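A quick aside before the break. I want you to see a complete sequence-to-structure record at least once, exactly as it would be stored in a machine-readable document. Don't worry about memorizing anything.
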Amino acid sequence: MRLNLNTKILLGFGIALGVLLLTTFVAYYSNQRLAYYTQQVQHTYQVLQATSDLRTNVRDAQGSVRNYLLLNDTTYLPQFEVAEQDLSRQYTILRDLTRDNPRQQQRLDTLRRALDADTRDLRMWTDRSASAPTARDMIRRNQERLEYIRALIGRIKYSEDNLLAERDRNQEFYAQTTPIALVISAILAFLIVGWLLSRIRQELAANAALQQELQQVNDEVARRISIIEHLAEQVVLGDYSVKIKDEERDNLGRLAGSLNRMTRQLSETFGALENRNQELDQFAYVASHDLKAPLRGVMTVVKWIEDELSGELSEKMRQYLDMMKGRLVRLEDLINGLLAYARIGRTEQKLEPVDVSELVDEVTDMVVPPDFQVRIPQPLPILVADRLSLQQVFTNLIGNAVKYHHKGGGTLTVSCQELKKHYEFTVADDGPGIAPEYHQKIFLMFQTLRDRHTAESTGIGLSIVKKIIDEQKGSIRVESAAGQGAAFIFTWPKQALPTSPEPAPAGT
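That is the input. The structure line, written in tokens, reads:
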């Protein structure tokens, strides 16, 4: 498993820190042991000194009594008393010093008994008359006990000498190994840190090279992506002839190939679609234009019948003729609607400042009966637009609100809300409303929700409105429910979108 740079740095510093901690522990332990054995050596010297002093006190006590007996000099007796006290005090010191050594404590117990016996015997000799024979008798009788005491003291001293030798060796060992351990630990720490720094430098150099390589790759990818973005922008603008020259066999290369195939397919598809649209437009223009002539002829014939045979026509026949004229008028409106729908986007727009409030007033005068009221709660904006297109939108929306109202009169409300790039206009009425399931259907051509016998309608008005708004890159929707009126809401750009008119088919 390959570790990243941060992990390596942390691991290396962790090892170095561990070595330093180990070094500190070793140094601390060695110093503690060195101090311990130094203290033990000093303690052993104290025991040896106390042993030597005890032996001196025994010798002084013996000498004081012996000198008293040999010289008959009572001044030696106080010296014996002092020696006896020193002997007791020195024994107590030696016993306290060897409290941690059970074996030495046992020897001191034996020595205590021997010293007590010797002291009693010496005190007995101080009560006798001083003479040389008496002194010789004391020396002979105490010689064996004195040798025994000296042997006990010797064993105590020998044991302490052995302890001193052992403690000297331990002290010397830790005195020598402590600096060696410190030096070795420092060298290990230095080597680890040096290795770590070397690895960090190598990793940083490798990362720098990798970053440079990645930057080159990113620059190349950005360049190729910008080419793809340029192709996408050209496609949005309608240019399907652009191609990407990218022969790399990676994802971007495959994407470039797919985009090239897409633009080629789009070019072919839109070319075929444009031809079809031109054919349909040609058909709509020609059919609509050619249908008007026979339609006018039929209307003329109906008028002739009414004028020349007015006395011979029955009431039933007159109803039939009126019905025929209504159907002919509706047919003419349908043809005019088809022509208007086909002309959208083909005629050159005349951009000019349009006061929307004045425009709505003009539309109201044309299509709103006197028993209807049109309310404008707040001033409508003034914008630069094709006046005829915007007038056609308001005419169809307001006219529909009047035409499909279920009462003899009503109220229409025209309002506007300013958005970031658009104005949002609302044409609301208090009519019968539109059920939600028909909100999308009403914008389709030839769709109407009323019986054509009740209200003459071609079903093209809202289709024309939607096409005009689509040409302006706006949107339209309806908010309504059955019995609650309807509100048509559409957006119109603040900045006019002029379009180049397509050539109309010949003969129009």
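Two observations worth writing down. Confidence is low (pLDDT under 50) at residues 451-455, 503-508. The radius of gyration is 63 Å. We'll return to this after the break.
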